[in-house]
Amino acid sequence: EVHQREYLSNGEMKKWDGPVSEVYSPVCFPGPDGLKRKLIGSYPLGTEKEAMEALDAATAAYDNGRGEWPTLSVADRIACVEQFTFKMLEQRDKVIKLIMWEIGKSIADSTKEFDRTVEYINLTIDALKDIDRQSSRFEIEQGIVAQSRRSPLGVVLCMGPFNYPLNETFTTLIPALIMGNTILFKPPKHGTLVHYPLLEAFRDCFPKGVVNTVYGRGANTVPGLMQSGKINVLTLIGSSKVANELKKMHPKVNRLRAILSLDAKNAAIVTKSADLQMAVTEIVLGSLSFNGQRCTALKITFVHKDIVDEFLELLSAEISKLKLGMPWLKGVNITPLAEPQKPEYLKECIEDAQAHGGKVINDHGGATAASLVFPAIVYPVNSQMKLYREEQFGPIIPVVPYESIEEPIQYQIDSVHGQQVSIFSNDAKEISALIDPFVNLVSRVNINSQCQRGPDVFPFTGRKDSAEGTLSVVDALRSFSIRSLVATKLNETNKQ
Ligand code: G3H
Hints:
This protein is 39% helix and 24% strand. The mean pLDDT is 96.
């Protein structure tokens, strides 16, 4: 058990003796009243007071761009981040175990999450060196010699998601930090303890007040921060509802930059010409990796009606091979769901589909034991069902039979989401005819492969309610900075 009684603010690990929030793992153990989530620790339930103190510290450290951190050279900022990465690697085992226990991610995927994060930091450092080289060249135009640089934006409020508590928090925090901004970071509700082993490294590697934590309920801590008008950048990976509410709290929303990665309901489309076994393999990966708890997951699958029976047979066979169990088991595919209320919600989705003519067509589909839910294929899904429009974020594969390709295109047009799509087809002409409509509706079209964020050097964004701004190694560096210029007119005085 990890009972955190400290938080990082203004360069100090401050002691906390106020109320705490208990952390329960999604992993359940038998008790006298049946299966119960295991208590694995607790963390400070901070209040608005501590949040505002952290804001003051970040504001003072930025000091209108005159602070030590925003004025440090790029090379020195890189050196601090490198030092942080060394210290982070010393905590590798602890952090991986905390990811596994806190959100129920398999040990293999928790390890990948940690290692991918370190790789992301290294790629970010390389990209920043490139950007710095390119942007610091002199340009001469119309008698003016100019040199540009990428400058920070100010105080960044950084809020990551529960499904990648380390990796996705750091895909915004690290680029924001390395560009010279100062940071307030609020860990996700499920995935808070994951960060505890890294707080001292933040304290030791960066000047006072550059990185500060915000603990406590979002409703008690975040409104004051937003209403202060002192947050220059809001970066959140989570729901569009929360993002909109937070943006509205800022008194001068036109002065707020928002970098957001939000809801998505990515569709797979399987045409008559598709290699069905390959499509099934990718769709299972895309729909069920980390139990479907990914914004990039495939959350609905359209299959041409002439091949749907064969597709469903192959899909059921593939799903029956999956291994369900505890996250520390070798080769486990489906693990306990991170959010306690999720199994009940998924049950409601299945019942709603059944009430509108759908069926669970695979053996054990939807069967639940505490927070473990066996993947369910629901067929046929239609537009009256929750599963047609809601982002289930869990292990259900809704399958919609279609007759004309206009049906999935219309689905995408009507959708409030616009992140990605996967098209499965073996016909080059058909593929090229489908790229154009979809590429103007979503931000990434995947051909014969699942939807995903990576490789991390690729731009990651979305249209409509799915995103604002772009992440990725290079794009994130741009998103958390502005290109500013020092321009000198070539006249007699300046020639001296
Ligand atoms: O939850 C949303 C993540 O961006 C998904 O990332 O595609 O690498 O699993 P991923």
